[in-house]
Design a protein that fits this description.
The protein is mainly β and 76 residues long. It has a domain at 8-50. Helix content is 8%, strand content 26%. It has 1 helix and 4 strands; from the N terminus they run ββββα. A hairpin with a 2-residue loop joins β1 and β2. It is elongated and about 75 Å long. The chain starts with 7 loop residues before the first strand and ends in a 22-residue tail after the last helix. The model has no long low-confidence stretch (mean pLDDT 90).
Length: 76
């Protein structure tokens, strides 16, 4: 496993670390968690509409009839 010594610094009230190029993560979001003394940073999973819809409960309600009259004629 590759490793590299990095410096910690302050960014306002937050502690920060620069991620070296060889460790860059794809995208603009990441997930961070702590396991014991280890700090784990992983790319955030891609969110798709299909994955969101798969988490929703099915609707049991019946939808009402929608009155959809024909449009008025238009002369051009």
């Amino acid at each position: 496993m590759a490793e590299r010594h990095v410096k910690l610094f302050r960014n306002g009230r937050n502690q920060a670390v620069r991620i070296p190029r060889e460790f860059e993560l794809p995208g603009e979001d990441a997930v961070m968690r702590k396991e014991g003394d280890r700090l784990i940073i992983e790319p955030a999973p891609a969110h798709s509409l299909l994955s969101l819809l798969a988490t929703l409960e099915p609707l049991d309600d019946a939808f009402p009839e929608i009155v959809d009259p024909a449009p008025d004629p238009v002369s051009i």
